C-alpha cells in the first residue's frame, strides 16, 4: 500500500504564510503525490480534534515540548517544528527504502 505520512498541526489558524494548515498540507500532499506517483497517503490531524486522541504518543511528545507541526512517516516522527518541508518529508520517505518501483537514491 501507499506510504503513510501523517501531519499533526495546531488547530486551524493561518500558518504565518497566509495559508491555513489545511491548505499547506494539501500543497504538500499534491507535491508528494506528484513526486512519488500517488504512492503516498498524506493524512492531516489537528491537535485537540477528536481524532488526535487516537495518537497518544504524539500528544505526549507535545506535552514534553515537541514543536508543531509534527510529521510522521509510517508512524515514526521525522520532523517537528518549523515549516512543512516537502524535501525533508521526501527524504524521510526515500530513506525507508524503495517506494513502489522507484529505486532508492544513493546519496
Textual characterization of the structure:
There is one protein chain. This protein has 107 residues and is an alpha+beta fold. The protein has 3 helices and 4 strands. The protein has helices at residues 21-35, 56-63, 86-95, and strands spanning 3-9, 40-46, 70-73, 76-80. The protein has a 4-stranded mixed sheet with strand order 2-1-3-4, with helices on one face. A hairpin with a 2-residue loop joins strand 3 (70-73) and strand 4. It is globular and about 35 Å long. The two termini are 25 Å apart. The model has no long low-confidence stretch (mean pLDDT 88).
Question: Strand tally, please?
Answer: 4
**Alpha plus pi helix count:** 3
Low-pLDDT segments: none
The level of helicity is 25-40%
Average the pLDDT over all residues and give the rounded result: 88
Strand content: 15-25%
Order of helices and strands: EHEHEEH
Structural class: alpha+beta
The main pleated sheet reads as:
4 strands, mixed
Molecular shape: globular
Q: Which strand order does the major sheet show?
A: 2-1-3-4
Span from first to last CA? 25 Å
Instruction: From the alpha carbons, calculate the radius of gyration and give it in angstroms.
Output: 14 Å
Amino acid at each position: 500500500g501507499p506510504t503513510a505520512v501523517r501531519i499533526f498541526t495546531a488547530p486551524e489558524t493561518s500558518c504565518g504564510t497566509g495559508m491555513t494548515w489545511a491548505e499547506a498540507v494539501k500543497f504538500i500532499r499534491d507535491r508528494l503525490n506528484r513526486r512519488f506517483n500517488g504512492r503516498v497517503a498524506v493524512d492531516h490531524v489537528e491537535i485537540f480534534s477528536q481524532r488526535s486522541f487516537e495518537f497518544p504518543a504524539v500528544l505526549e511528545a507535545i506535552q514534553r515540548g515537541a514543536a508543531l507541526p509534527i510529521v510522521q512517516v509510517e508512524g515514526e516522527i521525522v520532523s517537528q517544528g518549523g515549516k512543512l518541508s516537502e524535501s525533508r518529508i521526501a527524504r524521510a520517505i526515500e530513506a525507508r527504502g524503495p517506494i513502489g518501483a522507484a529505486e532508492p537514491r544513493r546519496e
